[in-house]
Amino acid sequence: MKKTFDFNRFWQALKWTILTEKKSILTAFLAFVCAFLAIQLFSCFTIFDLTHSLGSAATMAGMITCSGLISFMGFYYASGVLGNARTGQQRIIALMLPASNVEKFFARLLYCCIIMPVVIYLAVLAATGLRMFFELIAGHEGIVSGLSYVFDGTAIKVDGSNVDIFSTFFYVAISCWSISLFVLGGVFFHQRPFIWTAITIFAASLLLSTLTFYICTLIGEDSIKDFLMNFRGMTFETFDLILSLILTAFTVLNVWLSYRLYCRLQVVQHKWFNV
Prior knowledge:
Elements: H1 7-20, H2 22-44, H3 56-78, H4 88-96, H5 101-138, H6 148-151, E1 158-159, E2 162-163, H7 165-188, H8 193-219, H9 221-228, H10 236-262
Helix pairs in contact: 1-5, 2-3, 2-5, 3-5, 3-7, 7-8, 7-10
């Protein structure tokens, strides 16, 4: 199989991925609809609040909880790039697929990081519609969808007539970088990739924080202030842009490392790592 990227082979690999996962997609959609609906109903009908005296505050609480669940599941699915290659039989099928490694990798990446999040968002839309219907039957007044609390993070923030593009770019960059960490961990860890990736990120963050505090203590407060004075003329927009470009570079690096690890996929694997 040629190593070059061919769109037709990629499309066939993506269709094969979706067809093999269609049962999981449907099951996940129904499960998320039930979960989101239960969360929203519990918030809006707390202690049989049929008069809806809590108003939009109850809706806000439920939708913020849904938003947190969406973020959690987004990271969970991002760690499942090798979800179709856990067993020896699955790895044989994946290796025998008539597509190059880059096509198979990006097909799985698209499924885990795009298709499944779309399924989750469709589920929250369906659950919200059902919740509003039940509220209408219960006679609630001032019914609101509350979807703004779910989609607020992904929307471009508008301040008056100015669109805060730099803050939005930074938000997208840090989100993609965070997801790419779980993609890398999902390809590296063979067993329970989400759990081990989360533990590794937590341990690395703790270690980095400790080292940063120790280094700052050695340098001294005056030296740190002198260093920060070099950036006193920098605007928030410039700062956001620089950080966004750095995070984008690290995201590309993580995806490239994930692809290189994916290329090492073999029928006989290490028990814990994909090396």
